[in-house]
Amino acid sequence: MKFYSKNEVLQKRVFKQQLLLTFYKRTHKG
Predict the structure, then answer these.
(1) Using CA atoms, how far apart are residues 15 and 10, in angstroms rounded to an integer?
(2) What is the DSSP string of the chain?
(3) 20 to 30 A from 12, CA-CA: which of 4, 20, 21, 26?
(4) What does the buried/exposed string (b/e) look like for 1-30 if buried means 16 or more CB atoms within 10 Å of the residue's CB?
(5) CA 14/CA 23 separation, integer angstroms
(6) Separation of alpha carbons 7 and 3, rounded Å
(7) CB within 8 Å of 10: residues ≥ 6 apart
């Protein structure tokens, strides 16, 4: 099993959320 530090997991989670947000805004303009 790969070990991830809490910081890494948090960064990945935030990164995913940011991607989803930008994608959502791009597809739902107006």
Answers:
(1) 8
(2) -----HHHHHHHHHHHHHHHHHHHHHHS--
(3) 26
(4) eeeeeeeeeeeeeeeeeeeeeeeeeeeeee
(5) 14
(6) 12
(7) none
Token pair for 20: 């989803």
Interval 1-30: pLDDT, tens: 677 799 999 999 999 999 999 999 998 875
Tell me the residue length of the chain: 30
Does this model's pTM top 0.90? My answer is no
In which residue are the tokens 């959320």 written? Answer: 17
